[in-house]
Amino acid sequence: MNTAPRIQTLSVEPAILYWGTPVVLISTTNEDGTSNLAPMSSAFWLGWRCILGLDACSKNTENLLRTGECVLNLASPAQVGHVDRLARLTGSNPVPAAKQMRNYAHEKNKWEISGLTPVASETVQAPRALECPVQMEAVLSATNGFMADDPMWKVGIKVFEVRIQRVHVHPELLMDGSTDRIDPDKWSPLIMKFQKFYGCTTEQLHPSRLGEIPEASYLSPDVERARAASRA
């Protein structure tokens, strides 16, 4: 006897599948030594590596390919206004055609526009955004194409793998009595879902069996490499 619950589903075709990911402000170094700052949210982490999906014509993409380094600044809901001021601005000049279509404008002074404070990094040239609770210095490890099976789209997106070299956090994010562990009850990332901003509740919904595994068991050899990294 079939006892499956009667749950209705629909076959739909949303233009984007933007289910919700943390907002990342990426800072990179321009050719003249100044820096570019731009928000994105196509990112995920494994160990001390991060995968970034970026528009191939963006200034950050150009800078990352040239310099091989960046800073990933994670915003909280407190920085949502700063992040939104950077929307539809690009460091590329002239503005790429795809961004012209979406009414982007060129802006050189993005730090001033955002109201965020650039501070020196320890292992890369690009600055960190002081107000962001998490700031990760990273170097480029690999570059990949995307949608290689589509002649129109395959040139439009780049996928980068970056290796983290330093993790800076605001002290209040740490677990009580710890110098390295982030307390998930204290960290609330700014989330973007379907082009809109949302906060992330810090209330734990249910005990986690995965949470019983010691974090140290996931320790990556990249951590030891990061300890040896120094800014050139």
How would you describe this structure to a colleague?
By secondary structure, the chain is of the alpha+beta class. The protein has one domain (21-228): Electron Transport, Fmn-binding Protein, Chain A (Pnp Oxidase, Chain A, Roll), CATH 2.30.110.10. It contains five helices and 14 strands. The protein has helices at 59-67, 80-85, 97-100, 110-114, 222-228; strands at residues 21-22, 24-29, 35-40, 43-46, 49-55, 69-74, 89-90, 105-106, 118-119, 128-129, 134-144, 157-169, 191-193, 196-198. The strands form four sheets. The protein has a seven-stranded antiparallel sheet, with helices on both faces. A three-stranded antiparallel sheet has the order 1-13-14, with no helix packed on it. A two-stranded parallel sheet has the order 7-8. Helix 3 links the parallel strand 7 and strand 8 (105-106). The protein is globular and about 65 Å long.
Q: Helix-strand pattern, N to C?
A: EEEEEHEHEHEHEEEEEEH
Number of helices: 5
- Judging from the principal axes of the Cα atoms, what is the shape? globular
CATH architecture: Roll
Number of strands: 14
CATH topology (level 3) name: Pnp Oxidase, Chain A
Q: Which short descriptors sum up this protein?
A:
alpha+beta, 232 residues, 13% helix, Pnp Oxidase, Chain A
What's the topology here?
Layout: E1 21-22, E2 24-29, E3 35-40, E4 43-46, E5 49-55, H1 59-67, E6 69-74, H2 80-85, E7 89-90, H3 97-100, E8 105-106, H4 110-114, E9 118-119, E10 128-129, E11 134-144, E12 157-169, E13 191-193, E14 196-198, H5 222-228
Parallel strand pairs: 7-8
Antiparallel strand pairs: 1-13, 2-3, 2-6, 4-5, 5-12, 6-11, 9-10, 11-12, 13-14
